[in-house]
Each structure stands twice: as C-alpha cells, then as structure tokens.
Amino acid sequence: MNQRINSPLRASQAQAERPRSTGAVTARTSGGDRLRSWLGHHREMWHESWVRFFASPMSSGMTALVIAIALALPAALQLGLTNFQRAVAGWDGQPQISVFLHKGAKQEAVSAWTDKLRADPLVAEVTYISPEQALAEFQQASGLGDALVGMDSNPLPAVLLVRPSGSDSAALEALAERLRESALTDSVVLDMAWVQRLAQLTELGRRMSLGLAFLLALGVLLVVVNSIRLHIENRREEILVVKLVGGTDAFVRRPFLYTGLVYGLVGGLIAWLLVSVGVWLLAGPVSGLAGSYGSGFELDGPGVTYLLGLAGGAALLGLTGAWLAVARHISAIQPR
Amino acid sequence: MIQFDNVNKRYESGQDALGRVSLEIERAEMVFLTGHSGAGKSTLLKLLTAIERPTRGNVIVGGQNLNRLRNSQIPYYRRNLGIVFQNHQLLFDRSVFDNVALPLSVSGCSKREVGRRVRAALDKVGLLHKENQNPIVLSGGEQQRVGIARAVVNKPAVLVADEPTGNLDPKLSEEIMRLFRDFNAVGTTVLIASHDLELIARMRQRVLTLQQGQLIYDGYPSREPAY
C-alpha cells in the first residue's frame, strides 16, 4: 500500500519549490499520517457503502434478499439436522444383543452363564431381566397392561441384554453366534441395524446439506459478482479520474470490496431472520410431537453464535464475490 | 524536466502515431504543443502521463525513465503530474470541494491538510465561494477552472493540459491561460496542447508543432507559428 517510488522528480520538485513561500508543498505525508489517512479511507468507504446501499433500497434490497434466501435454505437444513441429532442423542450408537432364554431355563444355570459372560473380554456389560421384570416393563411401555392381566401365565421369557465391548461388526456377529450356540438360548437378536440406518440417514442429510450449501454459496458469489460488476460500470468515469490523479488499484478497489461486504452482511442478517421465523413457526408443533412421544424435546433456535457465523460467512462470501468482480473488471478500466 | 528521446509510438492497429520524436523541456518552462488533430498531440501527452508506453525510445520525466516504471508504480508517478482535460472530467456526484480534493485523498493527505490545500487551490482559480456547489451548475469556464484547481492542488512539478480552452470563448481562454502562466511563474513546468494558434501567438512562449507524428517546428514564433 505504501509503496513509493523514490522518484528524482520528487527531489527536483523539492528543489524547484524551495524558493516558494509555501514551503510545505513538498511535504510528503508522513508514515503516521498515511496510516491515519488509510484507516480514514477504510472508515469512509465502510460508511459510504452503507449510504450507497440505502440510497437505492430497492435494488440493494433485492440483491440482499436473493443472498438471504440462498443462505437460509442450507442454514435451515443444517439447523434441522443439529436438532435431529440432539433429539436422537439418547439413543447412542452402541449395539446391543438381546438373548431370549428358553422358558424352562434353570435359574442357577442362567446365573452361572451370566457370570461367565461377564468375564468375557468381548462383553462390556450383561443385564439380566427376569420374566416378571419384562412383564412389568411391557405393561408400562405399551399400555396393554389390561390385556395381559387377563392371562393366567406370564408369556414373556427371561432376557439377557449383552453389551459388547467393541462395535466391530465381525466380532459382534461372532459373539452373537456363540450366544446362539448356548443350550439356554432360545433366540438372539442383534439389535444394531436401525442404529446404523439412523447414523447413515444423518450422514446422508449432512452431506446433502453440505452439497446444497456449496451450490447455493456459489450462487451467492455469482449474484455478488454481478451486482459489483454493475456498480463498477456505473462508476466508470470516477475510476478513470481516480486512476489519472494517481489512485492506486487498492484505492479504486476499496469501495467495491466494502459494498460486497455490506451485501453479504445484510444478506446474512436477513437469512438469520428467515431461519428464526421458521423455527418460531415450527417450535409449537415440534414440541407437541415430542410431547406425544413422552419427550421434553424443544427445538433449538438459531442463537447468537449462529447469527455471527451466518453473518460472518455471508460477509466473507460478499467480499470474495467483490474481489472476483474487481479483479476482473477494474484492471480493464484504464485511461485511454 | 521532460525529455523525449527518439520516441516512436505505433498502436496495435498498426497506426504510427509518433515517429522519432526528440525534444527537451526545461524545468519551469512553459511550452505549447500544437498541430492538426491526428498529428500526435494526444499520443505525446499519453506517453507523458504513462497512459501509453512508447514502442521505441525513452520518455524521461524528472530523471525518471517511464519505460522502467512498473505498472504498480504508475499511480505514484502520476501524483507528480497535474493533468487538465479538455472535457475537464469532473465528477458530478460530489461537490466542487470534493472534486478538487480527489488527488489529495488518493495520496493519503490528512483531513486538515486537504481542507487547507483545496481552499488555496480554489482561491487561486477564483472559485472559493463555490466550493460547496455541484460542478454541474457551474459554467463551462468555471468547470475548467475547477479542473485546473484539481490539477494543481497537489502542487505538481509538471502541469499537462490537453486543449484546456477547447470549448471556451476567447475571453475565458485568456483567463485560463493567465492561470497557467501564474503557475509557471512559481516554477511549475507547463505543457499545453492546443490548436488555438492565435492564443498561442499572443502568449509568446515556446511552441512545438507536430505533423503526422513528426516534430516539425520547435521555437519561439515571432508572429505566427510555422506550420
């Protein structure tokens, strides 16, 4: 920025001007002054880009709205995904093997086997559920208690819930096979498929939202590039004059970069508003739905960090778009 | 101060705009550049203002060979020049003051300094009382004077003017020329391209005449410049 040429012209200028009474004319602006003025120009451009934004509220507003909508979509998807993951967080990904025992299995034999299993390095935890416990749990959870009361004997078998220490599927299959071979076992259910499906669904959603975010970010970039290109065209005269009076490319670029930044920032803020309104509209039904499943789950709205992330990311996109536009178009505008 | 050394300029279109032009202008000289349109006046000024680069030969200003100027250095070079355009190139989206202040804000002058220098320049061209107006409401002569104020606000060593009186009547032209003479009197090197031969003759200054890209006259015309 503060690159100077040590031009002999300046020196000769100094000599030429020495006899003049207005001696300060050769004054090169000092380093501190330059920095102050550089910062001042930044401040001025920041201010000016806001003034320009609101000077043509329709067109600027439209651009910002396009950016906002493009950003709100992936942002909402992302937020939904986060909420979904939070909702299912209770169901950890640990697989569990349910061993249903024969009805006639002797209590002592079951205890001995349980102890042996607990000593197995492949097994982390074994929980014994007696037929009575199973019945009580079933009555509570299913609401079919009354139907069972009418039965003269407990139809449920005893169950061993085995939690394996690892989650390697080959080892799990081997363990399940061994459990199945025991004489006490009626059947074995490897309770893992749905956990995997859930994880894969979540992953699928995550990737889709990433892909969508990428495409829409690209769209935002193009929108900004195009608006900045129009701004540059509109201020062509000014750019020419500034270049002729010794304005550096950085000086010429600055107002456009700030304009891009402002577009992004406003777009990000509106996107946040859109998502917030969406969450507010969905919060009632979601908590009702969660309530019907006996869960106290509440939708997490977009908080302050979310706002900062969205606005910051959008501002960065705006700035990048502006960079692309000025890099292409400003060097093409040269005095002729 | 300004030296052209065997300068050739051929445009990409193949048109030869200047051929083997050599000239030298001393510091604090005032020189008129004249010739028919298409004679190469504008090309010469463009080489001087680093808008174009010579095809062959050297342009040296204040000891600085413009051929060796990197593109990124051109803005800093131009800050030593004051340029006045025929169509004055004022910006109508800002006040007279802001127009004149442009070269100063570009070079990073402090606010206080900008105010002082802009007012001094406007005072010099007699438009101090119009600093807050938009240049679009000014007359042609006044607009040109704003353009001159902008060119000199940086106190450049060299002042270059391209047909500064092109659209003005003789009386206004005379005023503008008097301004240039004043700047010249305090040590600024002034180069004015003009085809107003009568006016040039009255100024009694050195005249350079171009014809078809060749320098055909360099001297002080007694009455009328040789053509």
TrEMBL record, chain B:
Belongs to the ABC transporter superfamily. Residues 2-226 form the ABC transporter domain. One of its GO terms (biological process) is cell division. Keywords: ATP-binding, Cell cycle, Cell division, Cell membrane, Membrane, Nucleotide-binding. One of its GO terms (molecular function) is ATP hydrolysis activity. It comes from the Bacteria. The keyword Cell division applies. The gene is ftsE. This is Cell division ATP-binding protein FtsE. It is found in: Cell inner membrane; Cell membrane.
